[in-house]
Amino acid sequence: MYHIAIDLDNTLLNTSKASISQFNKLTGIDLFPTDENHYRYYEFYGWNEEMYEVAYEQIGNEIHWQSDPYPYAVEVVKKLFRTYQLTILTARPDLFYDVTLKWLQFHDIPFHDIVFEREKFRICESLNIDMLIDDAPHYAMEFSSKGKRFMIMDQPYNRNINHNLIHRVTEWKEVIGILSECCETKLQNSKLSKI
Question: Is the pTM of the predicted complex or chain greater than 0.85?
């Protein structure tokens, strides 16, 4: 069975909108989700990564609970669940395990496994995951440079990423068609290797 890993933040759900809203309240700075064109948007608040981590630990539960699924994401994931092995693979800290599970249950999102890990390539290799669906440009480049297919959810901060193993998705309705093509290619390659 084809095994798919799906990221959460800015892939399955719009975390940027909730994050910017919460960070605006915390800082008194008025940024808008349309201002977010950089993967590390916390730099717009004048924060370094350490300062971001402190703020994130304080308000992360609110951010994750208030994030909305992208249009058609829930419906597509339900269809995928019937055909594929699905793992939720998030780089969120374990601190947000409970709110993550509650959010997934609240939105009725099915999955077979969930993993909290930043080393996504290593996890995908160890779990025999065929494709990761994610928004992060650094993961896209790592996977494609190592010969693994990757589906990148289109975001302003990843539009400069291109590679023949990277499939760009602008809306969740496109995912099923891309996966069908990739599965067919894998099946054909598997048959050819047995000849």
Answer: yes
